Hints:
43% of the residues lie in helices and 24% in strands. The chain has helices at 5-16, 25-28, 59-64, 69-78, 104-118, 133-143, 155-170; strands at 30-36, 39-53, 86-92, 95-102, 128-131. Strands 1, 2, 3, 4 and 5 form a five-stranded antiparallel beta sheet that branches.
Amino acid sequence: MRTASPLGFHLAGALTSNSTPAPNRERCLKYHIRIEHSRILVASMRFHAVGLNHECTSLEHTETFALDADDQEALYANLSLSADAEVFLLSTCNRTEAYLYASEADVRQVEALLGQAAGTQWPADEAFRVQDEAAVRHLLQVTSWLRSVVLGERQIFAQVKSAYERAVDAG
């Protein structure tokens, strides 16, 4: 499992530098092509954001799925995603979210592991799940304090940066 290369390409500039231009949409999507007995199979890798937060569920439910740093490291250790898939987890008092550059199967695996870590099933009916441009928009809104309980709360930027660094350290 890798945790930060293409995803890092898209996010590292936002988290570490003000001079990196935003990547164009074509570079955000990547396809893996495998030839198998004269058939071409294309498995799409997309950018996903999934999770629970104060906007979609109760505080009690969000707290059930909260992960401390040790829980996050354990989850990273248990992941066996597609070869080029990447993920980082963000867990604060008001949200537990995963940002992935991955296939649908990888997203389902992360959701299952989040549920396992909480000792219950992942609440797909309460959780949000967006992809591609909507997922990037969600992450940018979270990072820029627009999706905070208190609009403009500045702590979230440091939390996103720490979560990303933890993902990179997890390998």
